[in-house]
Input
Amino acid sequence: MSTQSVRKFLAAAALVMTTAGLAAQKKIVIAESQGKLAGKADAQGVRSFKGIPYAEPPVGDRRWTAPVPAGPWKGVRDARHFGASCYEPAYAPQSLFYIPRPTLSEDCLFLNVWTPVHAKNAPVIVWIHGGGFVKGGSWEPQYDGTHFAQHGVVFVSINYRLGSLGWLALPALSAESSHHVSGNYGLLDQIEALKWVKKNISAFGGNPANVTIDGESAGGVSMALLMVSPQARGLFQKVIGESLGIQSVPELKQRNHGLHSAEENGLAFERALGAPDLKALRAIDAKTLTEHAGFRGGPNVDGWVLPDQIVSIFDRRQEAPTPVLMGFNRNELYPVLMWFFPRHVPDSSAVYDAEIRKRYGDLAPEFLRLYPSSDIRSSTMAAVRDAVFGWSAMRIVRDQALAGVPSYLYFFDHSYPAAQARGFRAFHGSELPYVFGHVGKGAVLPPNWPLPDGPQETALSDAMISYWTSFARTGSPKAPGQPDWPTYAPNQSYMDFEETPRPSTRLMPGMFRLQEDIVRRARQAGDQPWVGNVGPGN
Output
């Protein structure tokens, strides 16, 4: 990417981040429980308040501890600019998600609020960004909440700790904890932010009793984690999950499902850094910890904030009984998530068929029907997509429907000229510009992102943001001039977002049943993970 294109992106991003341009803004002061905030309002009356601390800085002895609610401040706090973003490794310059990064800091537990003019008791959406639990931040311009506020929603976006700073588990850290657990600090941050929303959002015109949580990718996984965490119960009323997975995760102290324990992973990371003890580890600067390639981590089953594997909690009907809207995209893997793609792909149909028959036994005929050897690469990518994203979304939607809760499924299968020119269609995250209203010439997206532009893209975006905000408002997704979105039950209905929204039934017949059988057998075996390890030789 050229220096000139980066400069153009930064200039455009600066304009979006100031909402409607400096000339149109005026200072707005509100008071919440911590003190007074000075935000700004754009020409349409949308007010924004950024960089609001919801927890004390997790630095020094607070590194790798549960978040502590942020205290009050004196005077009026400037809330016109984003707070520092949490430490993260950089994306490669050629990545679709590459964005020149802002200030990074370990002191990063901030959130942002966009609110409509004269908002009172408005529905609230809390956005949790993706990035594999190691990257991302609420400052990213594609997460600007202006269009949600224009649809009458109070929109909140949050930071949470990433990488080893957010998910490191160690026996020494567990010993420090009153709950005898460690890791999951990023999840605890999300919960602390939701507690802040419950306590403070009415000051911004939001209804604390009508909160929808929404997230994509790792943010979508966070939706499932929050649904099953006892610590998050009662902090939200509805859930939107985009491209999520409910894969097996490590247990805190023991090996299970073919995975090392989270504490074992932490000890390996500690050794790789040459730190003899926890004191020495806390003395290492956050940048070094973040950029060290040896950390493998994410959520763990600790028995407290995450009591069990997500799917096991759903099996026992112990998840939050909330309405859900969830879905996935046709080409989740290419080009963004090719690291999911198996390292070994057979080079002939005969070898592919033989490997599938050997691995799947009586399930092989159905596997080969759904993922035939006529196009090995495409079939393998489809199998991984369905195992990670398709099965996860459909499992949660199905389970909530069985519990008698309104549940909605979508499938995003849309392409557009700028994406088609680069061989992309409905890739991972490609629904985000439509959901956030960032289409057309004025949209600001990561500089390598193909721009959706034209009347058809605007119409689809208008429909999707209307469906999303209607669901947040009432629990039923509706859009003016668009077809009604049927609940998943009783007909296995879903909304197909292709050229236009189109309701249909029975998405990919047989896919969910096969993937459910594969996961069930992996869980029963007890010695292998599930969701990602599908296909030939994987």
Q: What stands out?
A: The two ends are 34 Å apart (CA to CA).
